[in-house]
Amino acid sequence: MPEPLRFSAHARRRMASRGITETEVVEAVERPETTYRAKDDPSRLVILRRTVAGRRLKVVVPAVDRCVVITVADRDGER
């Protein structure tokens, strides 16, 4: 059984302000569509996934420990 995700306080604030659920984040981490190292910080991994509702999420985790969520964004809301 995989270790449960832990969310940083920053990630929790971003999720609340953007209306992103834990379930959506868990699905993204467990079944990513795309992953890559963050260009500005290669110690972080960027995970991309479209939710069932069609939202495009970006989840950032440490590259060595995918069980800690650093931040979450709705890519449709990024400019």
Can you walk through the features of this model?
It is a single chain. This protein has 79 residues and is of the alpha+beta class. The protein has one domain. It is 24% helix and 33% strand. It contains two helices and six strands; from the N terminus they run βααβββββ. The protein has helices at residues 9-18, 22-30; strands at 6-7, 34-37, 44-50, 56-62, 68-69, 71-74. The strands form two sheets. It has a four-stranded antiparallel β-sheet with strand order 2-3-4-6. A two-stranded parallel ribbon has the order 1-5. Strand 3 (44-50) and strand 4 (56-62) form a beta hairpin.
Question: Topology, pairings included?
Answer:
Blueprint: E1 6-7, H1 9-18, H2 22-30, E2 34-37, E3 44-50, E4 56-62, E5 68-69, E6 71-74
Parallel strand pairs: 1-5
Antiparallel strand pairs: 2-3, 3-4, 4-6
